[in-house]
């Protein structure tokens, strides 16, 4: 698995599971030209890669390199709906990746991180971090 394949697998998993649980709450992915709504809840998702390390040494071209990363999910909710619904959405997002494994893609934890942010007095946001790794052979 490489970074592009991992990102595609992550996106497919999130889009499928999120839409099944919350069909009226749109998903926006990083670096896509989308106009974000100001009158309804939505989620914004990005993927960040971290440090890589050698997991096993197997000879020329057969070393296993373990690549770490995080999926950062920001849940945006209209302030007047309150924190309870925002937390429900954040819990739904974390549940998608918590303990998830598919082929060489492994997630450890997924949970709310930090405290809520209030944006412009009308929107609040919560952040969910989901830690993962995948292995590269080479």
Provide a brief overview of the structure:
With 138 residues, the chain is α+β, with helices and mostly antiparallel strands.
Strand order of the largest sheet: 1-2-3-6-5-4
Continuous helix count:
2
User: Helical residue percent?
Assistant: 10-25%
Largest sheet: 6 strands, mixed
What is the molecular shape? Answer: elongated
- Distance from N terminus to C terminus (CA atoms, Å) equals 11 Å
Order of helices and strands: HEEEHEEE
User: What does the radius of gyration come to?
Assistant: 17 Å
Number of strands: 6
SS content category:
alpha+beta
Work out the strand percent: over 45%
**What is the average of the pLDDT values?**
89
Low-confidence stretches: none
Keywords:
138 residues, alpha+beta, 25% helix, 6-stranded mixed sheet, elongated
Could you please describe the fold and organization of this structure?
With 138 residues, the protein is α+β, with helices and mostly antiparallel strands. 25% of the residues lie in helices and 47% in strands. It is built from two helices and six strands, in the order αβββαβββ. The protein has helices at residues 3-21, 83-97, and strands at 27-29, 42-56, 64-78, 101-102, 105-119, 123-137. A six-stranded mixed β-sheet has the order 1-2-3-6-5-4, with helices on one face. β5 (105-119) and β6 form a beta hairpin. α1 crosses α2 (83-97).
Task: Explain the layout of strands and helices.
Blueprint: H1 3-21, E1 27-29, E2 42-56, E3 64-78, H2 83-97, E4 101-102, E5 105-119, E6 123-137
Parallel strand pairs: 1-2
Antiparallel strand pairs: 2-3, 3-6, 4-5, 5-6
């Amino acid at each position: 698995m490489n970074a592009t394949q991992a990102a595609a697998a992550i996106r497919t998993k999130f889009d499928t599971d999120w839409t099944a649980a919350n069909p009226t709450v749109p998903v926006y992915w990083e670096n896509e030209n989308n106009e974000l709504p100001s009158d309804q809840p939505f989620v914004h998702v990005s993927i960040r890669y971290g440090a890589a390390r050698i997991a096993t040494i197997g000879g020329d071209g057969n070393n296993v390199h373990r690549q770490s990363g995080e999926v950062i999910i920001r849940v945006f909710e209209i302030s007047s709906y309150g924190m309870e619904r925002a937390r429900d959405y954040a819990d739904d997002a974390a549940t998608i990746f918590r303990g998830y494994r598919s082929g060489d893609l492994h997630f450890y934890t997924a949970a709310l991180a930090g405290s809520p942010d209030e944006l412009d007095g009308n929107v609040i946001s919560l952040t969910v971090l989901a830690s993962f790794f995948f292995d590269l052979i080479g």
